[in-house]
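Structure ticket #2291
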Amino acid sequence: MTARTPRLSRLRRLTPGRGEDGAGRSGRRRGATPKVVALGGGQGLSASLAALRRITGDLTAVVTVADDGGSSGRLREELGVLPPGDLRKALAALCGDDDWGQTWARVIQHRFQSEGDLHGHAVGNLLIVALWEQLGDPVQALDLVGRLLGAQGRVLPMSAVPLELQALVRGHDPARPEDVDTVRGQATVALTPGEVLSVQVVPSAPPAVPEAVAAVLDADWVVLGPGSWFSSVIPHLLVPELLEALVETKARRVLSLNLAPQPGETEGFSPQRHLEVLARHAPKLALDVVLADEAAVPDRESLADAAKRFGAAVELAPVARQDGSPKHDPELLAAAYDRIFRMHGRIGPWR
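Resolution: structure written out below.
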């Protein structure tokens, strides 16, 4: 990456969004709402952010950086940069509902369709990588994109180095259903037909982004999930400094479960099995609340028992879209988060 460019100050004057006092385009004063940090990646994190931005003006997304498929994978391989795709999706989810926000959300999500090298690349991915190369600072570049979009929150990578996801999978090769193989790459892990037993990242013990660690330690609430369990949620627990912050923070912690098992990665998983897998990867992690859709929990007693091992209570709420798709409704999810923050949280200035 190149050194920081002097054009940054001029670019800042040209872009709307966050002011120096930390207020977003909504003008909500910092400290008037709970400080919330959401961790994850992909569509799951986007759903959580779209809900959370409706109830807090102080929101930070900490995003996994192990993606190696599609446009992100091509840019990562060619330029050696962090995969920008999940970061782009998080920024789009934080765009406001006004014309400015929705226009920019569509623009950065737009993918080129062609017969050439640009085919499949997302505009936002190219914008983010260009600013990384211009500024030489991934956090500063993401902050600048956020100001351009008028994002109602901040987006941070969980690590400053691109990571490779590796998984131990039983039956990855259907011809050898009992054999355990090492499967490499997030895209491959997500689609494996076998049973994922555990995951790790390479390099092991990667450095956390300091701003992400600071945000977790300073938060009132930390939200983990929903999302692809092995490829988007658990990787945060494999970054030692970030896991230490999650264990030591005085924030309350809520785990948001998926609406349905993910084909391949968590095929056949019950809600409680998601918790059991999480515990194996982070045995010292405590939780305060486990949030699940009431229609997605056939065995409430078993889920409650699994949550107790984390010291958590279970909150069941209707959070799915009414069209029957396994997707969260942002308004319903926002209502569930708001109720949890008020019922389980410390008395704070947002009350």
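Closing remark: Residues 330-344 form the longest helix (15 residues).
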